[in-house]
Design a protein that fits this description.
single chain; alpha+beta; Mannose-Binding Protein A, Chain A; 2 helices; C-type_lectin/snaclec_domain
């Protein structure tokens, strides 16, 4: 007979890995799924992958960007696969152009523990997606993840308060 010592919690708000609202290890995060018919037409849906995404070009802080995504029924985009990395790369380069340095918030933070980068669903960030030499926690204030275009292209840590464009994601049922 197997008896688990795990506890179950039900929150009336979304709880994300790495954020101050919940920092316990061994947690499985479940989020509500959205029917594709209810997703705004401003989103591009990849139905076989069960998500939709959108680029917001108006700059916000990381927390405000996350709130915009939540208001849409989603969260900041999780760059947790090669396919999603390529989507963000192509969209960001088309939006900001190559050569100009532009940042786009995505859904990971190390606010709970320095240099432990996890996506909001608790999965680890693939370190190979970072720009060489990053993350660097410049001036000890960079705890939110962004996708950077310019001379280099890839993930970079940024201050959570700096206003940047951002990508949102909605999980489909």
């Amino acid at each position: 007979m197997y008896i688990s010592n795990m506890m179950c919690y039900l929150y009336d708000v979304k709880v994300y890995s790495g954020q101050k609202s919940e920092n316990k290890t061994g947690i499985v995060y479940y989020w509500p799924l959205v029917d594709v018919a209810k997703v705004s037409s401003s989103y591009t849906c990849i139905e076989e992958e069960k998500y939709c995404y959108r680029l917001y070009s108006h700059p916000e802080s990381w927390q405000e960007a996350q709130k915009v995504c939540e208001d849409d029924g989603g969260y900041l985009f999780l760059v947790n696969s090669d396919k999603k990395y390529e989507i963000v790369k192509l969209k960001a380069l088309a939006d900001g152009g190559s050569g100009s340095v532009t940042y786009y918030y995505v859904g990971a933070t190390d606010e709970h523990k320095e240099d432990v980068w996890n996506w909001l669903d608790g999965s680890p960030v693939n370190r190979s997606y970072f720009i060489p030499g990053r993350p660097d926690n410049y001036q000890k204030i960079q705890h939110c993840l962004s996708f950077m275009t310019g001379n280099d292209v890839g993930l970079d840590d940024r201050s959570c308060l700096s206003p940047h464009s951002f990508f949102c994601e909605i999980s489909l049922s």
